[in-house]
Specification:
The chain is an alpha/beta fold and 447 residues long. The chain has eleven helices and 20 strands. A hairpin with a 6-residue loop joins strand 6 and strand 7.
């Protein structure tokens, strides 16, 4: 299949990684798993402080589905189970001991129940997202279709098909065969036109062309075969598919992660080989510009990532592929502020000189304007290539009108689909949080 999307926008930011970038290894002393990265997962601790763990040992399990686990990415000792208000679990920290000790999973069974239990206990199921509600997948789901994205169109993202080993057709085919036991429908793998991802046996291959957010699995699903009320689809990326294939091939959890350290405040953007949940300080050490500016370190991309900083409690967050560093902007005193015609200004419209100069921008984290009443201008629609009315959907979510939300397509969307619209929003509304709250409210009312 071929899919061409015209709506959206590619942000031209400084700090991208070159095509021939080398991969640098970095030692890891501690790692952390944060349950907030897994919506729909209600964590209960499976370990205590000072417990010895191996790679693949469950650290947390779901309160309502105990077979669904988040596992340790390394072998070592549980250093801390960090809690916040009302004893909410914020993260589980494991101190690595450098040994290769790992849990050996039985990857030979082929039934849906056996594969479901394998993926749930190994932590792979928690890396898959279920729609509606954009929550972690459950092995008991009745799945209509499965959508895998093999392209990342987010700002400064490194192409997934260039990551070492990810384009291995045999490994990916094993994973596709396992996933097909959950559905009577199809497994769709979307890749960029000209990608190195080969045709995978058992999957429907889709060549996608278009600006961001064309790389979002949910956007692809909405344009290939939208999800309706009463249906369930799974969405994941090709890196997760590769991890599932490695689990089936070896019986071990492969928590290796190739992280792109990018952004205008990074002196030399590089790829770093590390593990899931690595400390951010080890990834950015010696790579930040010494320009005296306050910096915002983001785990992820500038649109959907989590601001983490580089302190002792800052760790790489899901989906574990990118670090972006931009200026905070709180130390800037700019003449005319957002209204300045400075050619370094970013704009979604041809109203600033920078749009014509086609230069690479160096943004900061300022809001550039105040929050205000919602302006119905159609700008959301230009940024979201889905057959929905996004402005009216946002209004229905804010009004908690369930009937309107369903009619306007809330079952198709996830917060990440609104990230670009949030960037372009004249009203400065926190669209991703509004959508997340709406999905959680709808799930609570329906279930």
């Amino acid at each position: 299949m071929k899919l061409h999307l015209s709506k959206g926008l590619n942000l031209r930011l400084a700090g991208a990684i070159g095509n021939n970038a080398a991969t640098i290894g970095t030692p890891v002393t501690t790692v952390a798993i944060c349950p907030d990265d897994f919506p729909g997962f209600t964590p209960k601790p499976a370990v205590r402080e000072n417990d010895k763990v191996e790679t693949g040992t469950p650290l947390l399990y779901d309160k309502y589905n105990p077979t669904l686990c988040l596992v340790s990415p390394v072998a070592g000792t549980v250093k801390a189970v960090v809690r916040g208000e009302r004893r909410k679990i914020l993260r589980v920290v494991v101190e690595a001991d450098g040994t290769p000790a790992a849990v050996k999973f039985d990857a030979g069974a082929g039934s849906a129940d056996a594969v479901g239990e394998l993926l749930a206990r190994s932590g792979m199921m928690a890396l898959i997202r279920r729609r509606p509600y954009d929550i972690v997948a459950f092995p008991t789901d009745t799945v209509r279709d499965i959508f895998v994205t093999a392209l990342d169109t987010a700002p400064l993202a490194y192409p997934m098909d260039r990551l070492p080993g990810v384009a291995d057709a045999d490994i990916l085919a094993k994973a596709v065969k396992a996933l097909k036991t959950f559905t009577k429908g199809d497994v769709y793998i979307s890749r960029a036109t000209g990608s190195s991802i080969p045709d995978i046996e058992g999957a429907v291959m889709v060549d996608v062309d278009g600006p961001h957010p064309a790389g979002n699995a949910g956007i692809q699903a909405a344009n290939i075969k939208p999800v309706n009320k009463g249906e369930t689809i799974w969405c994941l990326d090709v890196v997760t598919l590769w991890r599932i294939g490695r689990l089936l091939a070896t019986g071990n959890v492969d928590a290796t992660s190739i992280v792109a350290v990018t952004g205008p405040e990074v002196t030399d953007p590089v790829l770093v080989r590390t593990v899931v949940g690595a400390p951010v300080a080890s990834l950015v050490k010696g790579r930040l510009a010494d320009d005296g500016r306050h910096k915002r370190i983001i785990s992820g991309n500038v649109l959907t990532g989590t601001a983490v900083g580089d302190g002792a409690d800052a760790y790489l967050r899901y989906p574990y592929r990118q670090i972006t560093v931009i200026a905070e902007g709180d130390d800037v005193n700019e003449f005319m502020g957002w209204a300045s015609l400075n050619p370094s200004k970013m704009s979604t419209r041809p109203s600033f000189p920078g749009r014509f100069l086609r230069k690479l921008f160096r943004p900061d984290a300022r809001l550039n304007g105040g929050r205000r009443s919602m302006i119905m201008s159609g700008e959301y629609d230009r940024m979201i290539p889905m057959d929905i009315l996004p402005e009216y959907l946002i209004k229905a979510i804010m009004a908690r009108d369930i009937e309107k939300m369903e009619q306007l397509g809330i079952y198709e969307v996830a917060p990440e689909d609104f990230a670009l619209a949030e960037y372009a929003d004249t009203s400065k509304l926190p669209l991703q949080q509004i959508v997340r709250d709406g999905l959680d409210y709808l799930r609570k009312e329906n279930e």
